[in-house]
Write a structure and sequence with these properties.
The protein is an alpha+beta fold. The protein folds into three domains: 107 residues, GMP Synthetase, Chain A, domain 3 (2-Layer Sandwich); 90 residues, GMP Synthetase, Chain A, domain 3, CATH 3.30.300.10; 128 residues, 2-Layer Sandwich (GMP Synthetase, Chain A, domain 3). It has nine helices and 14 strands. β8 and β9 form a beta hairpin. α1 crosses α2 and α8 crosses α9. The longest helix is centred in the C-terminal third of the chain and has 20 residues. It is flat, with a radius of gyration of 21 Å.
Length: 372
């Protein structure tokens, strides 16, 4: 018997704000040039946003209004939130991609070498049933965040954008048997007491979490901790710095699967940090759709090299070899298969990249794999 924990953060968390700005800049460039090369990172703190990185694009994009709109849409649009996207200082340090990198990636006839070296992991499990196929702790932690974000859209809400959740589940022989602890920390408006906030979260947030309440594991013996550090009226960039790619475990599968270490946000699909991670998830999910249990796929690449240098697949604890002989795992093959030269990426930058419908790497294709 053991305990297992996963956290999630809201779109108002400073690191997630940085991710969303990075991907908004990416989407804007892909909208004018689907072949754009983008590696955009963002750092923000207080009254400053730094946008940096390298972009090569056959078209003009005005970055400043993208940054301002992203901040305001999240809810950082005035004094109460501690950050105002309408007036914040923006420092643009974007430049064109290195010719050496570009030349090493682009081959003849549209073939692409990998945009960097590294290893990427995909994972799926049936703790949460089809079509989600994600670890239960991860899914429930994000369900709480989703309800917090829905509530913030209401005019009468007491909540502000920055928030975190954490779910701990007790497992026996690898099976979830009880939700041990739920932690919710949320920034809120002034003139709110701890009693008011705790009651609000219980009745306006947690009671609306269908999976949490419907899984049969959350009961009167489950510990519920709301804002354990006390009142929290100053959050977001006003309270803490944010940086693109600093919530990698949240972006992936919680701690249920290794991660390669490369960030997703702000990177066009020639960067295998992103596209190969999506492909690995696509493959792992399609395996679990057929076999049940758990599947983990690792792909590894060398910069400028077309095909992966290694592929490993583990299904329910056993190595399965040669599953993907008929699937093109080159960067171009992945981009074409998942149709990744589209401005679809800002939506991934909060809420997790996996276990959500509407993305091509989440599609189940019954005929994709012949597992005998």
């Amino acid at each position: 018997m053991n305990l297992w924990t996963t956290e999630a953060v809201s779109n108002g968390h400073p690191d997630k704000v940085a991710d969303q700005i990075s991907d908004a800049v990416l989407d804007a460039h892909l909208a004018v040039d689907p072949m754009a090369r983008v590696a955009c990172e963002v750092a923000l703190c207080g009254d400053l946003v730094l946008v940096m990185g390298e972009i090569t694009c056959d078209g003009e994009v005005d970055v400043e209004p993208i940054v301002r709109k992203t901040l305001c849409d999240i809810g950082y649009n005035g004094e109460e939130s501690g950050c105002d996207g309408k007036t914040i200082e923006i420092l643009n340090k974007l430049h064109t991609q290195s010719g050496e990198i570009s030349g090493g990636i682009t081959k003849e006839d549209g073939v692409l070498g990998a945009g960097d070296q590294g290893m990427m992991f995909g994972f799926a499990c049936d703790e949460v049933a089809s079509p989600i196929f994600m670890p239960m702790t991860h899914h429930l932690a994000f369900e709480i965040i989703n309800e917090l974000e829905k509530d913030r859209e209401k005019e009468e809400t007491i909540l502000l954008p920055d928030a975190k959740s954490q779910v701990t589940i007790r497992y026996e022989d690898g099976v979830p048997i009880h939700i041990d602890t739920v932690v919710v920390s949320t920034c809120h408006k002034t003139m709110v007491t701890m009693g008011d906030l705790q009651g609000y979260v219980r009745h306006n947030i947690l009671k609306k979490c269908e999976s949490l309440n419907g899984c049969g594991l959350f009961d009167e013996n489950s510990k519920l901790i709301i804002n354990p550090a006390g009142l929290w009226t100053q959050g977001g960039p006003a309270a803490d710095s944010g940086l693109t790619g600093r919530k990698l475990v949240v972006d992936n599968y919680g701690s249920d699967c290794p991660i390669g270490g490369g960030a997703f946000s702000g990177k066009d699909p020639t960067k295998v940090d992103r596209s190969a991670a999506y492909m690995a998830r696509f493959l792992a999910k399609n395996i679990v759709a057929k076999t049940g249990g758990r599947s983990q796929v690792q792909l590894a690449y060398a910069i400028g090299v077309v095909q992966p240098v290694s592929v490993r697949t583990i299904v329910n604890g056993e190595d399965w070899n040669d599953l993907f002989k008929d699937i093109d795992l080159s960067p171009k093959g992945i981009i074409d298969k998942l149709d990744l030269r589209r401005p679809i990426f800002q939506a991934t930058a909060s809420g997790g990249h996996f276990g959500r419908e509407g993305f091509p790497w989440e599609v189940i294709e019954p005929e994709l794999l012949n597992l005998g």
